[in-house]
Amino acid sequence: MNDLLNTALELAGAGVPVLPLRVGKVPFANCPACAGNACGGRPNMKHAGPCRCRSVCHGWAAATTDTQIITSAPWRAAWARAAAVAYHPGGAGLTVVDLDNTQAVTWAHQNLPPTRTVTTTRGEHWIYRGTMPSSNAVRPGVDIKSRMQYVRWLGCGTGAMAALPDAVRALAVKEPSPSRSARQTLTAPLRDGQGECRHRTPTYLDRGIAMAEQRITDARSAVHATVYRTFLAVLAAHGRCGCLTDAHVERLFTAAQAKGESLRHCADAWTNARTALGV
Question: For the whole model, what pTM was predicted?
Answer without folding.
Answer: 0.63
